[in-house]
């Protein structure tokens, strides 16, 4: 099978670090083109890449099979629609759209043109959340009662990125970071039975939420508490799980983002390895009623697993790991007023 010729719609942080390195390293893809209206930065890193000055020009290139829509959140729906109408498969950055209604329209459009609509939720392949999933599956925690997922930052001032700071569809920390954590919870526990949301705006002059708390209630009385904040100077553990027989605590310490920004390619043997002394702490009661404490190392983080799934979906028509129903549920929660 020939590699999938792929185009990026932007070459900012997302394109440069979270997409291009994987497309270049994975033999199933060819990083063929980038949409760059002004500076042609991609050519500095990938001299053979084709540069387009307009989306219209890019979409008429029939050799392009897959388009990565990695533009600001408020543009996702319209750009994805244009790409599908041009009969391209699309990999759509999270949050997929601002509303579930927009995503439903894209689902129907993708079906009508017989193309794949795939959503990029790369943090399902983070080392830390994968470790948590394995601990839950092991049964050592007993029946799960509560799961706390946090994404903390300390950024008390307004950034220069207008698309993130202005009151636009899909803006604010809940859409930006909460979409990761809500997706992780849904990927583990399924569709929540009910949920509640609290958002706050604490920075001087902010027009968007910079704090959010979500409570998801799943089957079997499993509670997931999700917190995203721009106001945490002392970063807290990203994963805390309590069950009837034990607890698991772990930092959000996946190293893939740091490695990519340091220039490590995804096919490097050390890519995805966590730093030393970042193991999770598992405390549980064994069958002899003894309290056991273990340090649990993570497996490698593997964002490349997402791209392998994209390839299998497009070339071999296999189901994609991130299904449309899960994205619709996520967007319904994010869109709650």
Automatic annotation (TrEMBL):
Keywords: Oxidoreductase
Domain of life: Bacteria
Pfam families linked to this entry: GFO_IDH_MocA (PF01408), GFO_IDH_MocA_C3 (PF22725)
Keyword Oxidoreductase on entry: yes
Occurrences of domain GFO/IDH/MocA-like oxidoreductase (ranges): 131-248
InterPro entries xref list: Gfo/Idh/MocA-like_OxRdtase_N, Gfo/Idh/MocA_oxidoreduct, GFO_IDH_MocA-like_dom, NAD(P)-bd_dom_sf
GO molecular function: nucleotide binding; oxidoreductase activity
Domain Gfo/Idh/MocA-like oxidoreductase N-terminal: 7-120
Family note: Belongs to the Gfo/Idh/MocA family.
Identification of the protein by name: Oxidoreductase
Species: Flavobacterium piscinae
Higher taxonomy: Bacteria, Pseudomonadati, Bacteroidota, Flavobacteriia, Flavobacteriales
